[in-house]
Structure formats: C-alpha cells, structure tokens
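From: lab user (bench 3)
To: helpdesk
Subject: output format question, protein + pantoate

Hello, I'm new to running complex predictions and I'm not sure whether the block I got back is the full result or only part of it. Here's what I submitted:
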Amino acid sequence: MGKLHIVGGGAIGSLIAASAHKNGVPYDCYPRNIRTMPACARWQDGQSIALKAAMPAPVVLEEGDVLILPLKVYQLNAALIQWLPYLTQKPTVVLMHNGMGGLEAARDLLGVDYPLLLATTSHGALKESTLSGDFYVKSTGLGATQVGAPNVDKPSPQKLADLFQVAPLLANAIATLDSALPPVQYQSDILKALWTKLSVNAVINPLTALHNIQNKHIGNTEFEQIRIAICNEFTQVAKAYGLDFDARSVHENVLSVAKATGENYSSMHQDVVHGRRTEIDAINGYIVEMAKKKGIPVPENTLLVERVKALSV
Ligand code: PAF
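Helpdesk reply: Thanks, we reran it on our side. This is the complete output you should expect:
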C-alpha cells in the first residue's frame, strides 16, 4: 500500500489523517501552519486519537504514493506549485474540494495525462480549539467518498476492477483511500457526481451563510421558492454542458442532504462566521461563469454571489 500524504490542516484533511491513523494506513500531514494543525481527533462515540506530528515541508514522493489535497479551490494553485518539484515520480494526486475549478487548475499545472483522481466526500468534520488553544478535529457524521479518474481515456472504466486493468496505480490509490477513510466508491462519471454536489452546495451553502442557520432550516417553506429557482438554473446550465439532470430530483436531493446534515453549519456559514474567504466563486460563481459562456440567464445565482461577497468583506 502506498503512503498517504495529506496537504493542509483543515477539518477534512485532519479527519482523513485521524482515520488513516486508526486504520493503520501510513500517512503524513503537511499543514500550511503547523501551529494550527489538530493534535488529536474526537469521534462521535467519545473516543479520541492522537495524530502524528506534522511534516514541516514537502518531500519527494514515490510512484505508489498518494498526495491528497483537501483544500479550498482557491488554495489549490499555490499548493500544487509548491508540490510540483516533488512529483517527478508521478504519484497519484487526489483533489477534494467543494465547488468546481480544481480539475482545470490541476490539468494546467500537471498536464492532462497526469494520474489524477477527483473526490467528493459527505463525511462531516469540524476543527475546533480548546480553551488552552490546542486544535482538534471532531467527526460530526459518517459519510462516504466518491472518487473518479477524469484523465483516464474515454470511455471511463465502468467498474473499479476495470480501472485496475487500465490504470493499476490509480486503482491502488483508491484502495488506499478506502483503507484510510471508508467507504470510498468509484464513480466512472465523476464529473456528474461533482455537479450533483455542486447543486447541493449552491443551495445550502449561501442560504445558511446569509441567514445564519443550520442546514436543517434549508427545508423550511420560506426558502422553497429560492431553492427551486437555484435548482432550475443549475439544471439548465448543466444541460448546456451535456449533463442531464432533472430539476425536481435535484431539489429533492438538496432537501435530503439538508436533512441528513441538519445539525451541521455549512462550510460557507463557518467561513463567514470566522471571517474567512468563502468558496462562493467556485460554487454559485462557477454556475454564473458557465452560464455566461452559453448565454443563459441565472439571476438567482448571480444575486447570491453578490450577497455572499457583501457579507464576507
Ligand atoms: O460545504 C458543506 O458544508 C457540505 O458540503 C454540505 C454538504 C453542504 C454539508 O454541510
């Protein structure tokens, strides 16, 4: 099994590290700021686990290693540029972020043939600090991770066993991820899975941030009109790019994720509360940009981008 190298000390990266630790998968963490890297993880059953000390700088990776970047999209370029000199053996790179735009950044910097995986996860995690200022990560809900290989020739292998035939290192990397933080599900059409997640984030994230509410309140009738409008705009834009969604099912899926993650505060809510830059450009902003290229009007998404930007300045 290759070693897992986790970039960034955010909630999801730390959760992956803690779970790798628990499951005996070799790993190292490379946070931007060692001081704010969680020293331990707390599971929902009350158990806690101490994490390995973080690495101060990148190291040259081997071909069978896996470099995972659970970062915000806007942090990705700088992180990939920093890691480029250490990727000469072409270890598998895994992108995991909300919103879109990472694939384009990775293809620009690594090339279109680079062994790349795209992943999206529904595991919940929060990074918190104790009164004495020590950081820890808290698991807030078990989920699943979907992963796919966008740079493997079309047609994409339908099953993981097929991927093992054409790209064994990528398939092994998926197995490593599954050993670290299960379950990991291979998706032959990862772009569709990412657009599905985009639809969820396009509704839940800006509305929870603007109204300062937990995810469960997104199902309230007061938000019905805006939920439906965002889903309709999303569906039209996706269709223009050959992705076939049904607006009603998109809306139902949003409601079920809002319910399943009801007690959570969305990542955008947390970004606004903590005065951090939000991912609005990679979520609703991405829908607006893609719509513009095809001449599709998306007034609700456009307004949400403006309103969230006004919140976070
Ligand atoms: O960004 C988030 O917070 C999450 O992707 C989701 C699914 C909206 C749950 O909070």
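A quick orientation on your result: Residues 98, 200-201, 204-205, 215, 257, 261, 264, 266-267 surround pantoate (CB under 6 Å). Let us know if anything else is unclear.
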